[in-house]
Amino acid sequence: MTEDIKNTQKSIEPQTSPAVITRRRFLTAMTAVTGTAVAGAVVVPMVQSLEPTAAASALATTTVDLTPIEPGMQVTAMWQEKPIIVINRTPEMLATLDETMQKGLLKDPNCTVPQQPPYCKNKYRSRIPEWYVGIRICNHLCCIPHYRPKKGSVAPWWLGGFHCPCHGSMYDLSCRVIKGSPAPHNMAVPEYEIDIAKKKVVVTHMYPLAHLC
Amino acid sequence: MGLKEWVYKRSPLPEMWREHMAEYYAPKNFNIFYYAGSLLLLMVALQFLSGFLVLAHYIPSAENAYNSVFGIMYDVKYGWLMQYMHIDGSSLIFVLLYVHMARGMLYGSYKAPRELVWLIGYTLYLVFMAESFFGYVLPYSNLSYWAGTVITSLLKSIPFIGGWVTTIARGGPGISGDTLGRFMALHVTLVFILILGLIAVHILYLHKVGSNNPDGIDIKENKDSDGHPLDGIPFHPYYSVKDLSGFGVWLFIFSAIIFYAPTFHHIFLERTMSTPANALKSLPDVTPPWYLSPFYAMLRSIPNKTGGILVMVFAVLVPFILPWLDRNPVRSTRYRPVTRIMLIIFFINFFVLAWVGEQPPLPKFFLTERLGTAIYVGFFLLLPIVTMFEPTRKPPARVRYRAH
Ligand code: HEM
Ligand code: FES
Fold this sequence. Notes:
Chain A is an alpha+beta fold. Helix content of chain A is 25%, strand content 19%. Chain A has three helices and nine strands; from the N terminus they run H-H-E-E-E-H-E-E-E-E-E-E. A three-stranded antiparallel sheet of chain A has the order 1-9-8, with no helix packed on it. In chain A, strand 8 and strand 9 (200-205) form a beta hairpin. Chain A is elongated and about 95 Å long. The relative contact order of chain A is 0.14. Chain B contains 15 helices and two strands. Chain B has helices at 3-10, 13-22, 35-55, 65-74, 79-106, 115-137, 142-155, 162-170, 177-209, 235-260, 293-301, 305-317, 322-325, 337-357, 366-389, and strands at 25-27, 232-234. Chain B has a two-stranded antiparallel ribbon. The longest helix of chain B has 33 residues, at 177-209. The mean pLDDT of chain B is 95. Chain A binds chain B through residues 47, 50-53, 56-57, 76, 78, 81, 83, 140-146, 154-155, 163-168, 170, 179-184, 213, and chain B through 146, 149-150, 153-154, 156, 167-168, 171-174, 178, 182, 279-286, 296, 299-300, 302-306, 308, 360-364, 366. Bound molecules: protoporphyrin IX containing FE and FE2/S2 (inorganic) cluster. Residues 34, 36-38, 40-41, 44, 97, 100-101, 104, 107, 109-110, 114, 117-118, 121-122, 124-125, 199, 202-203, 206, 211-212 of chain B line the site of protoporphyrin IX containing FE.
């Protein structure tokens, strides 16, 4: 057996001749190139098989009826798989919006980062001062902040607002982020229509410049 | 030719047995901390068994996952036992991992020539974090849902491709039944196989260079006429039997926890695990399991999103370079009192961070969180300087050992 192999090897050209080396290099290069191409061609469908199957959100609107929301109350509704919060703010609650600004508690008091449509770029962050409409998703890492309207409920200086259970981000009653929070920006406000006469809010679509989380 | 001989001629096993068991010489002065390694092997095996048995009843879908997990607890015969074995087992694996790593730090086991043993070991620890994360998303409880949301949201901060990676990880824009499918695939195949492979590599790399010991001295420097280390004893039968008796004691503790304190005061199984997932509500105490909470405390101690994420990633990865941060040629901290004191402060601080990470994220805890983070980071920054100048006693030539 071994004898045979030795004999065959002797009969072919010497292993170190330049021709053999060039051919080997050529074959190695060819194998490497084909191998990479095949691997690449296989990886693409493999990764793509992990992509979501169907377009997840049918781009629907959500209508919220304002009749049952009394002053001081809030309601959370689903819109495109995201929670939308609607708050009916009392005059005392609206007064805290100035107080947070005067005390310098806020990261972006004047809403310069476009986290809301231009028509909501005011201290109320809404079309109509009493009615706050926004996406209830913490700007840090996407949890749902808790509504904490009572003064002093989160810390002694607390004026009312939102507190995130995940990493403690704090927001005022306009969902403007309070200094000391890990969240970088105010919570996002979507595009919406509000009709006070008919007592309803229609959330239409995401404000494209806003950064959810 | 007998059957035994026939097999021996064809099998690689007898040689492997000699190399890794009968003729693997280990230092004779191992102490209690040296049980953790073999106990980890035992726990991984048990975790596989209990996991296999609960998987037989688990349904990875948004509608059924939570109920199927409750079904295992209440309807499946002995399902509660398998489930608590798996839940408590995962916490105990982290107890052992921390003891095992602390041992390595106390005796300088990460230093030359065992740097690769440390690197492979630390990689194992990170892979275990991933394994347990995928695992606790599977029951689709409220905690699962929000833990899954927060951790996958972290991926968004990867530059350029973050958004795409997050969608791929979740299988959609948010956590859903599709996420459960891919997390289950990761939990039971890819990541678990990675763990098994890394364990094998970890032990092979250790056996190439030999074990360290509490005195941190090289037993290969004193050999008898046969070339065996004078301070070494063959792993089998000496340490194999010792480790087996360790298994006995450990299994006793393990069963006591399963039968008498299965949730361990809701540390091993959080209360928020027993409410179903809800996309509209994050419960008040969404905190990670105790073994991840030190890093979580560091994430939220920084009032800036990018800053917090960077500090957390740094804290998780920096122990990798420990072998190169420690500049003292003497291994064991038995002979380096300053490093030993720093280590003890570091360990206590790690517990404090774990505790504060489990507290609700209220402003009154900010100071503790920030101080803890500063001590954790400070340890690694100070170490290279301290270890260059610290007073060091000369280690003995032979291991300190009392026969028993
Ligand atoms: C499931 C995970 C792990 C298993 C099964 C495992 C197993 C083992 C075993 C059986 C030994 C030899 C016995 C002993 O010295 O205790 C060992 C040694 C060692 N392991 Fe691990 N290990 C794991 C994780 C880790 C981790 C996370 C680290 C460090 C980050 C690590 C670092 C080391 C070091 C440095 C040694 C040598 C210790 C010495 O000789 O003093 N291991 N491991
Ligand atoms: S997700 Fe709200 S603070 Fe982190």
